[in-house]
């Protein structure tokens, strides 16, 4: 069940369907990044939107791989950021999202693979 819910969330985020992703979240969701922890769906959405690209970069992700670790679900992917103006690759990185779905409380850690437990974007 956790794995299926996590997959739904990741697929919605990857498709930029943030409303569908939000429906899967607890209103008090915690989002942890290397820059700190924010709470609530609106704050989570801001983190997700920022990680999905901006005026300069268009983001692409490979198909995520899912893994169960200590009761959490980790989705790992490879991201490619392209300059919107030229389409050239600006950078590539391994990216992971760790989802904790327990007791109606959801916590998400976003980030670069290899950055402690809180894996996060830019």
Topology record:
Blueprint (H helix, E strand, L loop, with lengths): L1 H13 L3 H5 L7 E4 L2 E4 L1 H11 L5 E5 L3 E5 L2 E12 L5 E14 L2 E8 L10
Parallel strand pairs: 1-7
Antiparallel strand pairs: 1-2, 3-5, 4-5, 5-6, 6-7
Structure commentary:
This protein is of the alpha+beta class and 122 residues long. It has one domain: Nuclear Transport Factor 2, Chain: A. The chain has three helices and seven strands; from the N terminus they run H-H-E-E-H-E-E-E-E-E. The chain has helices at residues 2-14, 18-22, 41-51; strands spanning 30-33, 36-39, 57-61, 65-69, 72-83, 89-102, 105-112. Strands 1, 2, 3, 4, 5, 6 and 7 form a seven-stranded mixed sheet that branches. Strand 6 and strand 7 (105-112) form a beta hairpin. The radius of gyration is 14 Å and the shape is globular. Residues 111-122 have low confidence and may be disordered.
């Amino acid at each position: 069940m956790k794995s299926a819910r996590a997959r739904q969330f990741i697929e919605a985020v990857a498709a930029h369907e943030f409303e569908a992703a939000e429906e899967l979240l607890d209103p008090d969701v915690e989002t942890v990044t290397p820059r700190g922890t924010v709470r609530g769906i609106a704050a989570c959405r801001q983190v997700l939107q920022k990680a999905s690209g901006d005026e300069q970069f268009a983001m692409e992700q490979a198909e995520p791989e899912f893994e169960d670790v200590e009761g959490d679900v980790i989705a790992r992917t490879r991201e490619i950021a392209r300059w919107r103006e030229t389409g050239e690759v600006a950078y590539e990185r391994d990216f992971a999202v760790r989802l904790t779905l327990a007791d109606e409380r959801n916590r998400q850690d976003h980030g670069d693979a290899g950055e402690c437990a809180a894996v996060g974007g830019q």
